[in-house]
Amino acid sequence: MANPSPSASPTGNNVAEFTVSELSNAVKRALEEGFGHVRLRGEVSGYRGPHASGHCYFSLKDDKAKIDAVVWRGAWSKLRFKPEEGMEVIATGKISSFPGSSKYQIVIESLEPAGLGALMAQLEERKRRFAAEGLFADERKRPLPFLPKVVGIVTSPTGAVIRDMLHGFRERFPTRVVVWPVRVQGEGSAAEVAAAIRGFNAIAPGAAIPRPDVLIVARGGGSLEDLWGFNDEAVVRAVAASTIPVISAVGHETDWTLIDLVADARAPTPTKAAEWAVPKHSDLLAETGKLTLRLQVSVRRVLEALRRDLKSAARGLPRAEDLAALPRQRLDTIAHRLEGALKARVQRCHTRFAQVAGRLPSPRTLVTHHRQRIDATAIRLGRALSANTQAHHTRHVRIASRLAPRLLDIRLTRASDRLEALERRARDGLGRTAAVRRARLERASGRLQPAPIRHRVERCAERLDTLTRRIERALAGSLGQHRRALDGQAKLLASLGYHSVLARGFALVRDADGAMVRSAHAVAAGQNLEIEFADGRVSAEAVNSPVSPPGGSAPRSEPRKAPEKAASSASKRPAKDQGTLF
Questions:
Q1: Which residue, among 141, 145, 143, 61, has the nearest Cα to 106 in the 3D structure?
Q2: Is 7 exposed, middle or buried (0-12, 13-18, 19+ CB in 10 A)?
Q3: H or E, element range at 484
Q4: CA angle 257–263–267, rounded 5-degree value
Q5: Which residues contact 228 (CB under 8 A, 6 or more apart)?
Q6: CA-CA distance, 118 to 485, in Å (whole number)?
Q7: Above 50 in pLDDT, residue 465?
Q8: Cα-Cα-Cα-Cα dihedral of 272, 278, 280, 285, to 10°?
């Protein structure tokens, strides 16, 4: 819309009149229709968290510009990644304007960090902060229980991780496992993991649900974005505040998260965490056998020592003949003292043997314990098989009830209705999009008039004619200059050539080889010569050799008959290459 010129009168002005609201709404529609969805990269500025209404307001900026951003409450709850002050992010949304302040803004629908570098920078910053608080100190880590009765696992109940861990428990040492199901990826996973850890610690001893002796937080491998929930501050602080020892089994051996640093132990894989939590049953049996053997050997050694002491004491007793020689009273005294010493020694041996035997379980006790465990396992196995069969039967009945043809017809009808609704929405959307594109095309075609193109073509034709005339003039001038130079060279050649001398009556004499004869003494008698005149060439033959006149007088004139003879046999030939007289 063009502004009216200052000289235009108000009565003659035909520009449309808008109110402020109409203009603001028109600008808003132009922004929303002109840009649509955009992806915008920038640094978060002015972030103060969600507003009391649930909406969130902040800005995105770079080194040259700044734009306001808003996240509505519905979109805020669906964001997988929450912004932080100073973080570089990539926002996807629509460009719009707020008519109340005449500012344009981006309405964010999804948010993600600007590449892996931003996540790593945030992870390093959290790591430094938690390390400064002492959450990663080795003094805080507690030893794992040797033989836990109950193991608590925080993981997804539908993944392969829990199956591998339960298989590991069955293979090593059957124990009671309590699983707290959580989401291990996506929005809300960190809050669920932290709540599960706090929930296990809140179980009181002796409750209906047993309190675990050790906790395992497990998840399979993945990228940094997939494991980001285990770097959340709530999860780290929940593990640090846990009174139950925690084993971190998140990802593979090459993956690491902040929960690995704060946990009491970090297992490279979830299966390895199950191996660390409980000892191996066969190893316990082997160790028990070794300790039993050592105890039996120790008892045998004690009995042998007592037997040797008894034999030594018996050898120290006096012989019978020596006792007969002693007085009766002294003999009674010695016998009484010997009897007391023997009784005391036997009592001490008996007490020591009782102590050793009290610590050593009897074979019947050992066999009874294992027999009891086998009976209990057999009873549990029968119950488990019955329960498993009943569960599968119930599941089969439930699934069979859901697989009725009527239900399938209902689902197909609903899917067909939904497909038709989507088709209508797609058709309406395509119509609206086509209308918008048609309007834009009409506006663009209105600007593409043939008059400017015709005017430009005419200007180019005029310029081409001008250049053609300039080229013709330049070519004519160049040809005239070269023609004058050629005429001058021709005149110079005519003035310096020997043809002008021949025209004055001179002649040029050549021998049979075409070499120029410069002296009469170079001519021998009977030699064929060629004489060139201005108008042609004749052949001649020298009659005699030239003789120098005495006294240096002029040579004799040759007989006239020779020239006549030569002239009679001469034949004119066209001129050859130019020569010179010099």
A1: 61
A2: exposed
A3: helix 450-496
A4: 70
A5: 81, 119
A6: 79
A7: yes
A8: 170
Spatial distance between the Cα atoms of 22 and 18, rounded to a whole number of angstroms? 6
Report in angstroms the alpha-carbon separations of 227 from 91, 119, 124: 21, 11, 15
Model pTM score: 0.39
Tell me if 299 sits within 8 A of 307, measured CB to CB. no
Cα–Cα distance between 353 and 299 in angstroms, integer?
A: 8
Is residue 216 packed enough to be buried (19+ CB in 10 Å), middle (13-18) or exposed (0-12)? buried
What is the CATH topology of the domain spanning 16-114? Answer: OB fold (Dihydrolipoamide Acetyltransferase, E2P) (2.40.50)
Between CA 168 and CA 272 the distance in angstroms is 8
Question: pLDDT tens for residues 149-199?
Answer: 899 999 888 878 888 888 888 888 778 889 988 888 877 888 889 999 989
- DSSP string of 381-406? HHHHHHHHHHHHHHHHHHHHHHT-HH
From 287, 415, 288, select the one nearest 360 (Cα to Cα).
288
Residue 5, pLDDT above cutoff 90? no
Phi, psi of 457 (to 5 degrees): -65, -40
441-471 b/e (C-beta count within 10 Å ≥ 16 → b)? eeeeeeeeeeeeeeeeeeeeeeeeeeeeeee
Q: What is the CATH number of domain 121-279?
A: 3.40.50.261
Task: Please check the confidence at residue 578 and state whether its pLDDT lies above 60.
Answer: no
Residues 6+ apart with CB under 8 A from 528: 511, 512, 539, 540, 541
Q: 94 — phi, psi (to 5°)?
A: -115, 145
Task: With beta carbons less than 8 A apart as the criterion, state whether 334 and 318 touch.
Answer: yes
Domain boundary assignment for the chain = 16-114, 121-279, 283-370, 500-548+556-568
Residue 193: closest CA among 284, 129, 257, 279: 257
Question: Nearest Cα to 562, choosing from 529, 533, 535, 537?
Answer: 529
The string of pLDDT tens digits covering residues 352-390 is: 766 666 655 555 555 555 556 676 677 778 778 888 888
Closest CA to 92 of 113, 74, 73, 77: 113
In sequence order, what DSSP letters do the residues of 270-323 get, joined into one string? HHHHHHHHS--HHHHHHHHHHHHHHHHHHHHHHHHHHHHHHHHHHHTSPPHHHH
Find, among 70, 275, 247, 314, the residue nearest to 170 by Cα. Answer: 275
Instruction: Report the distance separating Cα 34 and Cα 429, nearest Å.
Output: 16
The closest of 541, 527, 539 to 572, measured between CA atoms, is 539
Residue 108's SS3 state is strand
Does residue 513 register a pLDDT over 60?
yes
Coil vs helix vs strand at 378: helix
d(CA 134, CA 490): 107
The span from the CA of 508 to the CA of 578, in Å, is 11
* Domains 16-114 and 121-279 agree in fold: no
